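Dear support,

I submitted the protein below through the web form. The confirmation email said the job was done, but the results page showed an empty box. After a refresh the structure appeared. I'm attaching both so you can tell me whether what I see now is the final result or a partial one.
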Amino acid sequence: MILLVCCDYHLHSPMYFFVANLSFLDVTIMSTVVPKMLANTFLLIKTISLEECLTQCFFYSLLGSTEFFILTVMSFNRYIAICNPLRYALIMSKRTCIILLLGSYVGAFVLILPTFILIASLPFCGSNVINHFFCDSAPVLKLACADISLAELADFISSALLLLGSFLLTVVSYTYIVITSLRIPSHQGRQKAFSTCVSHLTVVTLFYGSSIFIYIRPKKDNIVDVNKFATVLNTIITPMLNPFIYSLRNKKVKESVRDAISKYVTMLASLNSHK
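What the results page shows now:
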């Protein structure tokens, strides 16, 4: 998806700009979790240093939080495209897209920083066995040998603000989209308006559903085992499915894939003919 958006000028629009950045976040989130998980799966000695564990926890939280902001921005982009089509190019300019992207990263960093500082400052002198396949905040907090109530509260508040706040903005955007789409007189026009939102809604449902189940709880003492499957969905399966969700339901992306394959085949044929 990243290469397609960068190389095909037909995909140089705000929607695909954010799809490419969503794909980048998917790749980096999986790169934060999966390599160490695979290493621990196949090695007899399954270890991770405290510094590596906290680093993994920080980048997973940062990248995951940024993805929620990007999904919210994408719903705003769909709202402008359907509800204000004549002003779309003016509102969603290149400068606006870059500001929204940078704002997503900065907002995520500011939101997770207080919680991470509280977690990193805790003493870890008790059990050194983490009951998870990576260093998420809840299982890391269980390893601390000090009062973790303040860190748990900060984690709950930041998770609630991020998930419920961004989800509310997404719901508001799609409420206006539905109202506007229902006012379109032709059935074909309504169908086209709704079809442009299906891919994004699918990703939002998968990502928010699992994340709200995992993180929006004030106490996380007895839920680590229950949440492991939801975490696999959130960290591995959903990021892996996102490119397929956006490509299989998108005519422009499918055309771009066909053009790229055609150019690659032509290039190979040309190279073979010169040999």
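Response: this is the final, complete result; the empty box was a page-load delay. The two ends are 32 Å apart (CA to CA).
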